[in-house]
Amino acid sequence: MKRFNSILLICFTAILLVLTGCPKSPAKTTTEMPSFAAEGAKLIYHVDYFGDEYDFIVDLKKIGKDIEFDWSMTSPVNSSGSVEIKEKALKNATYLFNYFSDGDNIIMYDSTTVFMSKAVYNALKKNETVTIDAGDGDENLSFDDYEDFPVIINGEEKNLYCIYSSSDLFGWFWILDNQSFPLILKMDIGWTITLTEIVTE
């Protein structure tokens, strides 16, 4: 009878997991660069800025200790510029620069954009709360879950494994789960920017 009850309990637990869904287990920290992280790659984001919609396009020029890219925004904004993120910022920065003006050619020593720093990434991987500033002052960012994030890569839809995190200032961030390339896939801070396509060829 005890054995029968044990079998019933196992079956019930299995059914419950199927119905409710199993939480995703954390992946090991990936340090190998993703295949699309190449100089010359184009990252296409869609922006919804309080009703104004346009694309923000990142043309990667250099990937190494520093990252350099040209950027452009389509109509109705119609602006462009360039960014160089220094090694120090890629390692430690907690400030996210999110507001560009036409002709901006910015060198970042203490802030990042498009990418989270390794310090923020590592804290989230350890399920630690980390303080960032995305333009509205300090907010405490916490790990929530792992998710698959759909993106078109060279014409084919693929899922990118990402860290989903949220802050106490009603900010939400989806970050590529890759320590060497912690690319921001989506950010919602009252307005949204979402990676929709990557072109490498």
Structural description of this entry:
The chain is an alpha+beta fold. It has one domain (37-199): YmcC-like fold. It has helices spanning 2-20, 87-92, 118-125; strands spanning 42-49, 52-63, 67-73, 79-85, 95-96, 105-108, 111-112, 130-133, 138-153, 156-167, 172-176, 184-188, 192-199. The strands form two sheets. It has a five-stranded mixed β-barrel. A two-stranded parallel sheet has the order 5-7. Strand 9 and strand 10 (156-167) form a beta hairpin. The radius of gyration is 20 Å and the shape is globular. Residues 1-23 have low confidence and may be disordered.
Brief overview, please?
By secondary structure, the protein is of the alpha+beta class. It contains three helices and 13 strands.
